[in-house]
Write a structure and sequence with these properties.
The complex is a heterodimer of chains A (about 260) and B (about 300).
Chain A: E1 3-15, E2 18-24, E3 37-40, E4 52-60, E5 65-71, H1 75-81, E6 88-95, H2 104-107, E7 109-115, H3 120-131, E8 135-142, H4 151-157, E9 159-164, E10 171-172, H5 180-183, E11 188-192, H6 195-205, E12 210-213, E13 229-231, E14 239-241, E15 248-250
Chain B: E1 6-8, E2 11-13, E3 17-19, H1 28-31, E4 42-47, E5 60-63, E6 66-69, H2 78-89, E7 96-100, H3 105-116, E8 123-127, H4 138-141, H5 144-157, E9 162-165, H6 173-182, E10 187-190, E11 194-197, E12 212-216, H7 221-234, E13 239-241, H8 248-257, E14 261-264, H9 267-270, H10 274-288
Parallel strand pairs in B: 3-14, 4-7, 7-8, 8-9, 9-10, 10-13, 13-14
Antiparallel strand pairs in B: 1-2, 5-6, 6-12, 11-12
Helix pairs in contact in B: 3-5, 5-6, 6-7, 7-8, 8-10
The chains are: A alpha/beta (about 260), B alpha/beta (about 300).
């Protein structure tokens, strides 16, 4: 059974339109791989049919609690943001394949690059990498100071460089404007964000090893509906399904 | 014979529920969630002669009580399906309805010839109603003559019964149904999606890369009910009903309208367990209205005799 009813333990706005939702219940114990996602029902199966794929941001196994961050942007996520403590949320998951952390064991340094609402899974990943002794550096890109979140929490794990598009906080510009220095150590790169950002990160990383996690509108979330495909040159089929083959892919594997 | 069993040409089903084409892939994804042998049957994703990548993304958009999709018949091609996808379904021992599509008459005929020859395929569903491809698909499904011509040729090429999947995007669905009946169809599948569109009000741009897409989900159920109700009174073909079904009550409503079996589509995305859950719920609903066998439900909205049918 990969469908669970989890109870809301908190659901608060932590930056402009960005919400942190904590859920508890059986099933959380399986959510051990950073990069996987939960397919979250808005709770109203008749007017808002489709689930929202939300990356796992953090898991507290002892408390059986999972943390999800999401942007309340459309009607569905706005409804989600109105969930009160104690209400139940219907989730499928954990779905998809998480980040491969094997290669980093040899290199012992990792650069985690995230943009906007793509940032959350890097928190869980960073925590796990740090626990295995890897030196972790984050580069986090936001629109502005008002849109930024979790910066202090990331700083507890490793060096954290922030960029904002409007220059209101950290380095003015995009994540790729801040990568140069960190690339010298030849880290393994992990990146999550919009396709245009991932493409820029991939170009900047050049020949370094790395992994990208893709975002796309999804239907079923389990590989059956073919809504979230992405072209690839490395597989015979010519495409991958982001939900079930990904959402994490090796750099260079998919055509962005 | 159990009380849920239904029998249609080529499809002897232990219950009337099968997933709709395109909403269930080729079954293997859902086989990780439950035992597919629970299903009455399975409709596999449309096969074309060569593999197709389909449309650019985004391919889905949510709408009120529904969704738009424009996948574009992505599939690995009929030979690959026969070799790799169908054998994986064999252990479940359930009827397989193979949906077939094409850009030209020749393509439809060749796909039919190949797939209907597979011993694993129980019947063919002729897709002349896909709204999301430029060539073929709905072109054949909106003109009576071309639909009838294609039905006749596919029927000749097929070793298995042929169900014609009708588009609701026509001015007179009854005439379309009668045309394909005359051309030799063994059954009807109805309805496919309604062509729709959604725009981002900020930019004015369509959400779907294909601009338009097919509307499915509970929003279209009343349209499906009405069309099945009208068609089933005018043709003598069995109908596989579909369009927004997401509960056991919906199934019985659709059968009352005239369907002999019912396909579940979009609801699979909402709840992967929906098909077995619906099947589990049916007996209690039949008890509630005093009906012994589910097959008695078909067409009771317009038949003279009323429930309880089993006490006639």
């Amino acid at each position: 059974m990969m469908k669970h009813l989890l109870k809301v333990t908190s659901n608060t706005e932590i930056a402009r339109n960005i919400f942190e939702m904590k859920l508890t219940g059986p099933g959380v114990g399986n959510m051990t791989s950073p990069g996987q996602f939960l397919h979250v029902s808005i709770g109203n199966h008749t007017s808002k049919l489709l689930r929202r794929p939300l990356s796992i941001c953090d898991v507290d196994l002892e408390r059986e609690e999972v943390t999800l961050l999401y942007r309340a942007q459309g009607d569905g996520t706005k409804q989600l943001s109105e969930k009160q403590n104690g209400e139940l949320v219907d989730v499928l998951g954990p779905l998809g394949n998480g980040f491969n952390m094997d290669e980093v064991d040899i290199k012992r340094s990792a650069l985690l690059v995230g943009g906007g609402i793509g940032v959350p899974p890097l928190y869980y990943l960073g925590k796990q990498l740090k626990n295995t002794g890897v030196q972790v550096t984050f580069i986090l890109g936001y629109q502005s100071l008002e849109d930024s979140f979790y910066i202090d929490k990331f700083k507890e794990i490793g060096e954290t460089i922030v960029t904002t598009a409007d220059g209101s906080f950290g380095i003015k510009g995009f994540v790729t404007d801040a990568m140069e220095q960190s690339l010298k150590e030849e880290p393994v790169i992990y990146s999550v964000g919009p396709a245009v950002m991932l493409k820029a990160v991939e170009e900047k990383a050049d020949s370094l090893d790395g992994y990208l996690s893709l975002e796309e509108r999804m239907g079923c979330g389990i590989g059956a509906c073919f809504a979230c495909v992405c072209p690839t040159e490395t597989r015979k089929s010519g495409y991958v399904k982001i939900c079930s083959d990904g959402p994490v892919f090796k750099m260079g594997e998919v055509v962005l | 014979m159990s009380r849920l069993s239904v029998s249609l040409p080529g499809l002897n089903m232990k219950n009337p529920i099968l997933p709709a084409s395109g909403c269930f892939g080729f079954g293997k994804e859902y086989s990780k969630w439950y035992d597919l042998s629970l299903l009455g049957g399975i409709t596999i994703k449309a096969a074309t002669l060569e593999g197709r990548f389909g449309n650019p993304t985004p391919r889905v958009a949510e709408t009120e009580s529904g969704m738009l999709n424009a996948i574009g018949l992505q599939n690995p091609g009929v030979a690959n399906i026969i070799e790799n996808e169908l054998p994986a379904l064999k252990p479940y021992n359930i009827p397989i309805l193979a949906n077939i599509a094409g850009s030209t008459e020749e393509e439809y005929i060749e796909v039919t010839r190949q797939i209907s020859a597979s011993p694993l395929v129980s019947a063919v569903e002729l897709n002349i109603s896909c709204p999301n491809v430029k060539e073929g698909g709905i072109q054949f499904g909106t003109h009576y003559k071309s639909a009838a011509d294609l039905t006749r040729k596919v029927k000749e090429a097929s070793q298995k019964p042929v169900y014609v999947k009708l588009s609701p995007n026509v001015s007179n669905i009854v005439e379309m149904a009668q045309a394909v009946e005359e051309a030799g169809a063994d059954g009807l599948s109805m309805i496919n999606t309604l062509v729709g569109m959604k725009l981002d009000w900020r930019t004015g741009n369509p959400i779907l890369a294909n601009k338009t897409g097919g509307l499915s989900g509970p929003a279209i159920k009343p349209v499906a009910i009405r069309m099945i109700y009208e068609v089933s009174q005018k043709v003598s073909l069995p109908i596989i009903g579909m369009g927004g079904v997401s509960t056991a009550e919906d199934v019985l409503e659709m059968m009352s309208a005239g369907a002999s079996a019912v396909a579940v589509g979009t609801a699979n995305f909402v709840n992967p367990y929906i098909c077995p859950e619906i099947i589990d719920s049916l007996p209690a609903l039949l008890d509630e209205i005093g009906v012994e066998n589910i097959s008695e439900m078909t067409g009771r909205s317009f038949r003279k005799w009323k429930t309880p049918l089993s006490s006639r």
